[in-house]
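User: Could you go from structure to sequence for me? I need the amino acid at each position, not a summary. Structure tokens:
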């Protein structure tokens, strides 16, 4: 009976803690990979200071912090409006209890990508496509043109049409959608890199040095397709082998989460 009474008395705080954790987790998703995450950490520190002032009954400092928070809320919504919009949009696309796409969905996306890559290589048209895994690519998305569209062969081929303004940049796939095009990636500066590799290969290697993105590179000079992951380049593979390797590297996402 005592155990039952204990459970009845304390179940509400446990539920409240779980709900609070759930809300904080999804607030963090709003700002994942954006510059606002640093501000969010600062706000947490200010909250701790605020509670300390209340604990010791510092009335003047408590009054100042209360006014500061009122102003801060308005300032945050104004300064970080783009990040908040992006976070809300991303949250709306997520499953509340899981963010990973099913393997069948990834297979469909990869087939579309490699179908386009094969066509582009035969036409001597270059392409650079990065697929986000665990490390957010938001900063690179912001350097390009936001698309946020469903992945299709027609859309990808349109982006990489030689006369397109987005042709020279990279495309980023985020959460199974074509997030942006014309994105700028950091160039790999290794002197030992062969001269046969152009800017796209250097950009792919540069991005792979900083993130765990899976990058597909189509060379217009060599008419071949390469995969780049974690600073390693997989090339001279058949289309079937490229698909299998890409599928394997995408699957690593689930194992690392």
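Assistant: Here is the amino acid at each position, in order:
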């Amino acid at each position: 009976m005592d155990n039952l009474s204990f459970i009845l008395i304390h179940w509400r705080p446990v539920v409240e803690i779980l709900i609070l954790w759930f809300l904080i987790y999804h607030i963090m998703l709003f700002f994942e990979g954006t510059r606002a995450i640093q501000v969010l950490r600062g706000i947490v520190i200010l909250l701790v200071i605020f509670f300390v002032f209340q604990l010791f009954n510092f009335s003047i400092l408590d009054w100042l912090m209360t006014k500061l928070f009122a102003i801060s809320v308005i300032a945050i919504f104004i300064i970080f409006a783009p990040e908040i919009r992006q976070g809300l949009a991303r949250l709306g696309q997520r499953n509340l209890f899981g963010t990973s796409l099913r393997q069948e969905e990834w297979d469909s996306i990869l087939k579309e990508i490699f179908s386009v890559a094969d066509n582009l290589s035969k036409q001597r048209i270059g392409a650079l496509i990065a697929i986000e895994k665990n490390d957010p690519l938001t900063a690179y998305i912001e350097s390009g043109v936001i698309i946020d569209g469903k992945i299709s062969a027609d859309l990808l081929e349109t982006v990489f049409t030689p006369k397109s303004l987005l042709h020279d940049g990279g495309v980023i796939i985020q959460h199974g959608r074509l997030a942006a095009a014309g994105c700028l990636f950091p160039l790999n500066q290794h002197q030992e890199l062969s001269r046969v590799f152009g800017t796209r290969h250097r950009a792919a290697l540069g991005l792979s040095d900083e993130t765990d993105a899976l990058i597909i590179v189509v060379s217009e000079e060599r008419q071949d397709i390469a995969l780049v992951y974690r600073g390693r380049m997989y090339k001279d593979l058949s289309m079937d082998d490229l698909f299998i390797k890409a599928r394997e590297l995408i699957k690593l996402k689930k194992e690392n989460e």
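One structural detail worth keeping in mind: The radius of gyration is 23 Å.
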